[in-house]
Specification:
single chain, Oxidized Rhodanese, domain 1, 5-stranded parallel β-sheet, two-stranded antiparallel sheet, 4 helices, 9 strands
Length: about 130
């Protein structure tokens, strides 16, 4: 089953609803600390090492310690790639309500660095650094 992708505004609506949605930010801790969606849960799906980005082997276990399989989850990252991967991992692990926020925190970029689809921060939506 294909993961549904939603806009940052749709994500904000779900988070403000009474549906119990959790925003799962799968960026690194450093990226998360620079700014994130308010009340987001941070569990990196990959970590930056001297060799580049490497998968977090404990990702599913760490998410499982925080969220039940029936928790409604919105995944997000910097531009949309890691979060879509994380959403697929979660769905394969048995999570039943997973959507991915298109554009992530910053936005999808074109080959010359131009913004093709603005993310949460570029749209001026609420930001937290706590």
């Amino acid at each position: 089953m294909e993961i549904k992708r939603i806009s940052p505004e749709e994500a904000q609506e779900l988070l403000e609803s009474e549906g119990g949605w959790t925003y799962l930010d799968v960026r690194t801790e450093v990226e998360f600390e620079e700014g994130h969606v308010p009340a987001a849960l941070n569990v990196p799906v990959a970590e930056r090492t001297y060799r580049g980005m490497e998968p977090n082997a404990d990702f599913l276990e760490e998410v499982g310690q925080e969220l039940a399989l029936d928790t409604p989850i919105i995944t997000g990252c910097l531009r949309g790639g890691r979060s879509l991967h994380a959403a697929n991992l979660l769905r394969e692990a048995g999570y039943t309500q997973v959507v991915d926020m298109r554009g992530g925190w910053d936005g999808e970029l074109g080959p010359l660095g131009e913004v093709l689809y603005p993310g949460w921060n570029r749209r001026g939506l609420p930001v937290s650094t706590e």
